[in-house]
Automatic annotation (TrEMBL):
Top-level taxon in the UniProt lineage: Bacteria
The protein's name in its UniProt record: EamA family transporter
Length: 33
């Protein structure tokens, strides 16, 4: 079972990219707080 980030970026569905963006922002906010 491969992790999602090892798949080709072009084959990723929109929700995967959106999820990564939201998770990145969450970690960014938590790192500042």
């Amino acid at each position: 079972m491969q992790p999602l980030w090892h798949t080709d970026a072009r084959s990723k569905p929109m929700w995967v990219r959106a999820g990564f963006e939201i998770t990145g922002r969450l970690f960014y906010v938590l790192a500042i707080a």
